[in-house]
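Board notes, transcribed. Complex of a protein with N-acetyl-L-norvaline.
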Amino acid sequence: MKTFFHVSDIGDLSAALKEAEEIKKNRFAYKHLGENKTIMLVFFNSSLRTRLSSQKAAQNLGMNAIVLNIGQDSWKLETELGVVMDGDKGEHLREAIPVMGSYCDIIGVRSFAGLKDRDYDYAETVLQQFIDYSGRPIISLESATVHPCQAFADLITINEYKKKDRPKVVLSWAPHPKSLPQAVPNSFAEWMNAADVDFVITNPEGYDLDPKFVGDAKVEHDQMKALEGADFVYAKNWSCPGVNNPEDYGKILSKDMSWTIDAKHMAVTNNAYFMHCLPVRRNMIVSDEVIDSPQSIVIPEAANREISAQVVMKRMLEDLQK
Ligand code: AN0
Ligand code: CP
């Protein structure tokens, strides 16, 4: 595996889920694989889960992990090509990436969408430079348009908790005070479309995700109707994806609090489990009552981030040995 970006990078999903199950039972079984290997975890943005779970997964595989917080531990990096660097950014990615690559075997990168220029974000401009200039396998730790480590952990969690072969999974938009990327819902949709689930997306008008990620999923703008009979409710805020109106890209079009997942919403489901990638804003995205209920599986979901990261790193390490 040279890149971990899209669901297609992991290949057969049932094989990946089996591998995840096996690793979860004995996370130290492959401790020898990472001997004398180093992963560099590069963060342009904040993180709790991704940073800790990636470090832990690397450790489980016997691999050394170096974490770099860009702009805090390092020079501020220029990401645009062709600019006169007379501002506050002291180094260009073009040099920094191959330098980082020379000290490690695998690189993980967190680089959120800027939400200003749709084409720039949807071309994954920063991640692509890592692929082009590092000479190393690259893992997206949430880049401009995808968060595959999260979506894989979400699938592992659904697989663990499902009570029927083909559960109904509903991805619901919910309000948030800040403008957030589409990476989490994009990847969740991509992975759910590839999995054996009945998948529905619900969001207010103007928030439809990019068709590349929506795929064949059903899009229902009536939230209550979408939630009927759901086995899993996956809440997330995202800003306007700008599909029909590119000038609205990254904007907040609605803060409609009737979309906050509360007991009234959960009542129409099939006693659904509640999921969210975290960090979550309580009583904006979800009511205290729902996130504190026994149906909330946000903590085991976050715990599975260690497992998804470990499957990905294990496969990359195995490929390096070939
Ligand atoms: C980020 C997002 O929505 O993409 C990270 C989620 C894993 N969330 C926030 O910035 C609150
Ligand atoms: N879910 C997730 O990626 O969390 P962090 O932003 O804390 O890493």
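The radius of gyration is 20 Å. The longest helix spans residues 298-321.
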